[in-house]
Amino acid sequence: MLSRFFLFLLLFSLGACIEPYDIILDNYRELLVVDAFISNSSRTQQVVLSRLSPHADSLRAMESGARVFLLENETVVIPFFEEGEGVYQISDKDLALKASATYQLNIELENGRHVISPFIALPPSSKISNIYYEPTYQNVYRERQLGLWVDPVLVEHPTFFRWEVERDWKFYTPYPLRFFYEVGDEFAQLVPAEYQRSHYCYKNGRSKNVIIDQAWENSDIFEGSKLIASLSTTQDDDFLVRHRAIIHQYSIDQEAFEYWEQVKALSEESDNFFGQQPFKVRSNLSYTEDEEEVLGYFELANWTCDTAYIEREQVRIDFDLPLYREILHCPMDTIDPIGANPFDVYSRYLVNRAFVGDYFPFPGVRWMLFTLKPCQDCTLRGGTVPAPAGWRDQDLFTFENHKPSFK
Questions:
Q1: SS3 (DSSP) at 32
Q2: pLDDT tens digit string along 340-357?
Q3: Cα–Cα–Cα angle for 33, 37, 43, nearest 5°?
Q4: pTM metric for this prediction
């Protein structure tokens, strides 16, 4: 029973989609959990230390005050520094992983205990041959979604892959902010607004699942293409203007691949997790003083990435994209300014209304049009005005230049 509990909490701590159970064990131990996925990517690398909680729905206790470092070829010490509670980091400029070296993770805890890993090498690099999309039907409602696929470059020997998907998208509101209501000391008036101020915005998202696979040239495991994300085209503002997909591909070693295969298998069987004795997920970390368990894994990954853009017009017909107003839910409201109480006009700005402009339904008849403020100011929809780093509105790396839209 104890091992079941530990395995469940390991998956819970790693973000697997498992229904939580509130279980308390009399012989509970606060095992150390180590999240140490280290790569040669252009990001800050980190090791996260925490302790299991006796309650499945409780936050993990972070492990502070440790000394964390990599040992290169048994001689060179590469230190990580605690930048947050239980989070130990090193910048990509201070970490240059070498293909000819081996590395060991060392963790010296504040209580004097010492955790180590075996020496492991950086796996060989792998490249991305292509990125493309095609329709998929992933959810229970058989909704037609946009599937992102990647073609890694295969070689004769088995290669083990892990992928992450980073996404940004540009959108804008259907009614640009042209005026705002300025309240002075003695009167209020409509004042022209800067057109671009909050008309265009950007959002971002990142895959949370661990996506892994293995393949080699002429293998029958998969045909050189891997589905790494399925995106809804009708539920949000992802494909209103322009969408960027950044595919991070990591080469990992066989031991790390088998570890994540076991974690994945336990996650998929979570509905019956307590109905049968699960097999044990073996860590490659251990204490030097005794045989107490350490949960988690230390792995090195060789990184590459590629980027492609999706234009709305590329997918509008293929995926039957709805109109902007259908996605953004922007009803219109009208007032006859001649017979309206001025306070009624002003009060609409206090009840989440925004002035769109004038409308002339008949000759000599003028109405004032209003809509919801989030239909005019995209920052109220969670967007940010500055474009994300590296964003290009005109770029050669669109799917049209990458590969035909569909197979």
A1: strand
A2: 666 666 666 556 577 777
A3: 130
A4: 0.78
